[in-house]
Amino acid sequence: MTEPLRLLQVGAGQMGRAWLAAIRADPDVELVALVDLDAGLARTAAGDHGYRDVLVGPDLTAVLAEARADAMVNVTIPEAHRATTIPALAAGLPVLCEKPIAPTVAEARAMVDAAERHGRLLMVSQSRRYSPGLAAFRRLIARIGPIGTVTCQFFRAPRFGGFREEMADPLLLDMAIHQFDLARLLTGADPLTAGCDAYNPPWSWYAGNAAAEATFVLAGGIRFTFSGSWCAPGLETSWNGAWRVSGAGGTAVWDGDHAPAAQLADGTVLTGEVGAEPEGIAGSLTEFVRCVRDGRRPDSAAARNIVSLAMVEAAVRSAAEHRIVAIAEVLGAAP
């Protein structure tokens, strides 16, 4: 029997607690250490999730030296990802990092370079990739021929408090990267350009732009349009968004929660068969463990996922400068 992968987690806030629960539920991993600048918060979070004997502390360097971990899960805020990930990679640990990998492509590139320099896996937890409904949706999309148009609507009204409500572009930076990343996954096409209008409705409780309309041109002439808001109460979409994909042979739709459906050009109606794949961060964790053990490079490895972050950065730049932005411009700007 394979021994559980020994994990060090850094970050014990709201999302950190979700990861503690996911780790507790996965027999293939074992939490051995928890780091947070607020050591009291970390001790409380560990105790609340049944972890009585793990190493807890505020100093990542000290815990890295003492914990005997096999890998690290990074659940700090995006601005801290670089400073916490690179020391772990240098210490020989593969890292599973919450999205977005970093606030900017330049910072993400530095993290990717560190992973390659130290020969360790750096994977981004794009948790929305892990959904039985999404897997069924992808199977239906394969039935409708070459894709021409992809649209996603995302309208919700969460009140998080904390850093999200102070961000300059909370919807684009913290949420839309999920949908942008899924557009890449669903189409298999790289983004070429971005055009975006970001704004903040008068009733918004966010300091920055909580709504946006973005259109991307992808390779092969595919258009992906995202329309969303984080201050849209009433008739909310799922957290995955509401999707429509049109191709030469028909159209497929998915509401993000239930089984997807499609209608082919000949009128045939199809319903997706939803399986039982691991979902959300549990799915991310499962894939990370498999990749650490067998050396496989996941689709959401940081070197690949940086393109999804570039879509976000290009959209933010487009909205600020009122112009179409080439993805290559953003990727090329990173040292």
From TrEMBL:
Annotated ranges, domain GFO/IDH/MocA-like oxidoreductase: 139-252
InterPro entries named among the record's database cross-references: Gfo/Idh/MocA-like_OxRdtase_N (IPR000683), Gfo/Idh/MocA_oxidoreduct (IPR051317), GFO_IDH_MocA-like_dom (IPR055170), NAD(P)-bd_dom_sf (IPR036291)
Q: Which Gene3D superfamilies match?
A: Dihydrodipicolinate Reductase, domain 2, NAD(P)-binding Rossmann-like Domain
Domain (Gfo/Idh/MocA-like oxidoreductase N-terminal) spans 8-125
Matching entries from Pfam families are given as: GFO_IDH_MocA (PF01408), GFO_IDH_MocA_C3 (PF22725)
The record's section on PANTHER family has:
CONSERVED EXPRESSED OXIDOREDUCTASE (EUROFUNG), OXIDOREDUCTASE
Output this protein's name.
Gfo/Idh/MocA family protein
Query: Which organism is this entry from?
Result: Paractinoplanes rhizophilus
